[in-house]
């Protein structure tokens, strides 16, 4: 298998302290083992018990029905996510507890108690109803990291509307594509958002996008920056004006457990992003339990996940998981290095953050900026650290452990995906010794398997293969929005009967999983998933480009860097100016996160005789390897490779 290799040499093992272990929700390996076995032997008993900790308007008849790829959870049960995240707590002492602590990039602060958030969500639910939004309608949310993003999400789930959050860093074209695919009726955006002191013109992007789509009837605009924005009377409405005119009571709609909850677009191996669909009951139950146990979350904790709500991590572990647990969740709008590279550490001290969950790419950036910045702060409130989004290299792990956690805080390296809805593989913080670079053990109810190209389980420890999941789990995606064939094709055709994750992995003799990264045409750039095909389509939409092939090159900071090989049309010649223009073009078409790090002009791309681009060769060339390894017998023209290497 092409890319399944790893050169991890770190052998050290770190143990959670006795102090941490004695107070943890799950305290011993035996307890983990017993519950894990039960969760596989009797998933109905296990998940039924977890779900009963939440509120159901009507009980389910069956916990689990069917098998992969089409399992159903909590069949016949009726519940509501917004009710479980808010009303349930408002009826208790948590009513006046801080639910959401927000800090804007310029420094403003807002604290919403559970009661405050509950009122705001009900008001916005009424706003949506007034705008004609009904159960099952799609609402696109294109907002910065401000409390209104969480309010809008919770209001949608309260009335049974399906939200589709689009990351504020996406361009108008990417936004239009996602609105069109979901056929959204309402778009919620802001005049702008702050990023590194600059204003991101969200409303302007939204207007651009709306020129291309016809389904949106109303646009709700949050006033965030106060900039002048273009306005279409009748269609556009200010959030604060709509909120003045509605009541603060809106009952949560009892919803079927298997009704759609939200759509979230993610990159796959084709040019078109997939609308991953999650449904209510299973997602809610799984996210509730993983947040509680993986982060060992307690009522007195201040919890901060630094992800943007535009990604699945923001959905599950900024908004829904913490609120389902009645926790205090911190939300920060801006960049980690604004105005200085110690903004995160300032926030940790200011709010007394106990649990911090961030991405390896951020940790590597902090390392580069130097430990002087974190050392200026106490950081003594921290008791648990987490990472997500990409493999963490042991150096970064050790830095995080020592410089941020002072050797005192366990680290959970959580492997999961947009499609899995919640954390699937991780250590449990009070239980498992930590091995830097290894995600760890399967969470309850998760049955991973490493399969070889013949679909056989790889039995030898430390041998690589495809990471698959062989049993249904509550928060798995149910389909790809509007494309059930793609759902089956993408996830269930490679290894029949199993869910194929797209990742390579190996398992050591203690049963710890080590994730080796994607084995498909998906890049992981600074923790963001990008399809090579998406970037290629963006490139060929430029008049100068004849053909493009995009690959990843290992990058010390971003995990992977984007390298584009481009052939030009007749009449165009390679130049520095054209190179910059192509980079800017991709950033405009998809968003700044997709800007290629390198554009290489070439006269031809290496292809097989059947015309497929041989990316494996391009990856090696991009990485600067002198010797091209592996089979090149199918290569149509060997001279192409030599010329590409010379051009390096
Ligand atoms: C949650 C999220 C999913 C892909 C996944 C894998 C990579 C995520 C990881 C990890 C190694 C970890 N990934 N967590 N790789 N160790 N702890 O990131 O979802 O944006 O859908 O990305 O990210 O390659 O397949 P998503």
TrEMBL record:
* The organism's place on the tree of life at top rank: Bacteria
One Gene Ontology cellular component term attached to this UniProt record is: cytosol
> One Pfam family from the UniProt entry?
ACAS_N
Q: What does the record give as EC number?
A: 6.2.1.1
Positions of CoA binding: 195-198, 313, 337
- Sites binding Mg(2+) sit at 540, 542, 545
Task: State the InterPro entries in the record.
Answer: Ac_CoA_lig (IPR011904), ACAS_N (IPR032387), AMP-bd_C (IPR025110), AMP-bd_C_sf (IPR045851), AMP-binding_CS (IPR020845), AMP-dep_synth/lig_dom (IPR000873), ANL_N_sf (IPR042099)
Residues that hold ATP according to the record: 389-391, 413-418, 503, 518, 529
Record function comment: Catalyzes the conversion of acetate into acetyl-CoA (AcCoA), an essential intermediate at the junction of anabolic and catabolic pathways. AcsA undergoes a two-step reaction. In the first half reaction, AcsA combines acetate with ATP to form acetyl-adenylate (AcAMP) intermediate. In the second half reaction, it can then transfer the acetyl group from AcAMP to the sulfhydryl group of CoA, forming the product AcCoA.
User: What's the family?
Assistant: Belongs to the ATP-dependent AMP-binding enzyme family.
Q: What is this protein called?
A: Acetyl-coenzyme A synthetase
Give the organism the record lists.
Answer: Thermus scotoductus
| Gene of this entry | acs
